[in-house]
Amino acid sequence: MATERMSFDDLPPAVLVGVQSHAGEILRTEMVIQGYNSQIAARISTADGSFFIKGLRADHGRVWTQHREAEVNPYLRGIAPALLWQVEDAGWVLLGFEALDGHHADYSAGSPDLPKVADLLCRLGEVPCPPIELRHAEQRLAAYAAKPTDVAHFAGDSLLHTDLNNENVLVNGPAYLVDWAWASKGAAWLDAAHWVVWLMAAGKQEPRSAEEWAARVPAWRTAAPEAVTAFALATANLWEEIAGVDPDPWTATVFDASRRWAEYRKAG
Ligand SMILES: Nc1ncnc2c1ncn2[C@@H]1O[C@H](COP(=O)(O)OP(=O)(O)OP(=O)(O)O)[C@@H](O)[C@H]1O
Ligand SMILES: [Mg+2]
User: Fold this and answer.
1) If you measure from the C-alpha of residue 175 to the centroid of ligand 2, how many angstroms do you get, rounded to a whole number?
2) pTM of the model
C-alpha cells in the first residue's frame, strides 16, 4: 500500500536544521511524485548544489529499508547515486543523495534506453555481494513458489536490486538504479528476470522480446530454463496477492504482465 507523501517543508525544524548542516542553506524544494514507499521524497537546491532526499518516520514499520539503502550504497559507485549524508533527528530518518538529472527509463520496444539498462545490469552483476545483512531472494519468494522445490533455484550469492520498475532507473548518459530499499542476495540472474516483468508491464513488450533483452545480461544465460519458469510462476502468484489488496491500477498491470509471462513459459 502506498505511504502518504508529505511536503519536505513540513518536516520539524530540527530536521530541516540537520539537513542544512550538511547541504547548506535551502533555496528551493520540490516534491517528487514518483514512488510510493517514502513519506518524504524531494529534490532540494542549496548554495552547495542539488540533493535528492528520501525519508521515513523513525517509528515507521519499514524504516529498516532506509538503513538497508544506506548500508548498501557505498558498494554501488557508478550504479546508484551516492549517499552523501543522513539525518536522524526529531523522529525522522532522512537520506541525502546526490541528485541525478535525466529521465526514467523508457522500457518500450525500440527505446534507446534499453541497451543502457542492459549495460547497467551487466555492471551490477560484476559487483561482489557486500558483507552486509540482506534479504534472501529464496525466502522472499518461498510463499509464492508453485512447488517447494522451486525455491532452491532462487538462492545464490549475488547482490540483487529486485525492483526493476522503470521509475527506479534514471537515464542521464548511462543508466543508474535508485531505490535500494529491497536489496537482496540470491541467484545472479534474478534481476534480469525481474526486468522481464517490467519490460512487459511498463514497456508493453511481448514475453519473447522481453526475454531477448534479459539475454543481453550474462547472468541470465546461467539460469536453467526451469528456474526461470519457476520464477515467472512465483512472481505471478506474488503480484496476484498484491493486486488483490492494492487498488492501484499499476498493480493490476504488473500482475497481468507476470501472469502472461508465466503462461508463455509454461507453454514453451
Ligand atoms: N538520486 C536521485 N536523484 C534524482 N531523482 C531521484 C533520485 N533517487 C530517486 N529519485 C526519484 O525519486 C523517485 C522516488 O525515489 P525512490 O524510488 O528511491 O523512493 P520511494 O518513494 O521509496 O519509491 P518506491 O515506492 O518505488 O519504493 C524515483 O522514482 C526517482 O524518480
Ligand atoms: Mg522507487
Assistant:
1) 15
2) 0.96
